[in-house]
Amino acid sequence: MAKLFYTPTSGAAASFIAAHVAGVRLDVEMVDLRTHTTASGADFYDINPKGNVPTLVLEDGTILNEGAAVLQWIADQKAGTIAPLPGTTARYLIMSALNYVASEVHPTIGGLFNPMLSEDVREYLKSAVAKKLNYLDTTLVSQKFLGGGTSASVADFYLHVVLSWTGHIGISLDPYPNVQSFVERVGGLQSVKAAYALMARNPPTTTG
Predict the structure, then answer these.
(1) Cis-peptide into 54, omega within 30 deg
(2) Which residues are CB-contacts of 184 (< 8 A; sequence separation ≥ 6)?
(3) Which of 156, 138, 131 is nearest to 75 (CA)?
(4) Which letter, b or e, does each residue of 90-103 get, where b requires 16 or more Cβ atoms within 10 Å of its Cβ?
(5) Do residues 185 and 130 make contact, with C-beta atoms less than 8 angstroms apart?
(6) What DSSP element (H or E) covers 122?
């Protein structure tokens, strides 16, 4: 069975959520990113020299260690459930949304956790976050989910996790009502609630 290394407070949580929602059973193990030690005591750098999560180790030993790739691999194990079928225009729209979250939203919001930022850099990042949230708020006027899908996809799970950090870094979503509605819509899905609850119990697999 493939194995997912993750932390429940990082963007890697989206991979756990995606696997749980789709019913893809993966072995899982938490990683302490401060010490780069796994829950079983292994040196995480021996598993993934980049030291980042999510890290997915496939049964043949192949390592995927970028969130967008891991999320799409998970989606393709249950084709058509949490992402459109490969090769379709709808799939490319989800890929575009997924990479926007990975390259634009995650780094700007996540960057504000750095305690070493100067005040000038912090204000710059806050301004950048506001631009991303404005864009998302406009986009979500006509879309319930990213990419125009009719149900939540891997891109939505990822964005939901990243947006959940805003309250911890002094970013209010009040000026962005469509973003707030998105957070409530995705977070209110029973399958997503169940995934978060399962993560909190530190389970051995994504299915319990």
Answers:
(1) yes
(2) none
(3) 156
(4) bbebbbebbebbbe
(5) no
(6) helix 119-139
Residue 137 main-chain phi, psi, to 5 deg: -65, -40
Among candidate residues 53, 4, 8, the one with its CA nearest the CA of residue 26 = 4
Produce one character per residue of 164-180: b if its CB has 16 or more CB atoms within 10 Å, e if not.
bbbeebebebeebebbb
Q: How many CB atoms lie within 10 A of CB 120?
A: 8
How many degrees, rounded to 5, is the angle at CA 47 between CA 70 and CA 11? 35
Question: What Å distances lie between residue 60 and 1, 35, 148, 166, 192, CA to CA?
Answer: 9, 27, 35, 38, 29
Structure tokens at 111: 């960057």
d(CA 160, CA 62): 28
Phi, psi angles (nearest 5°) of residue 31: -125, 135
Residue 175 preceded by cis peptide, ω within 30: no
pLDDT in tens, 10-48: 999 999 999 999 999 999 999 999 999 999 999 999 999
DSSP conformational letter for 32: E
Asked whether the whole model's pTM tops 0.85, one would answer yes
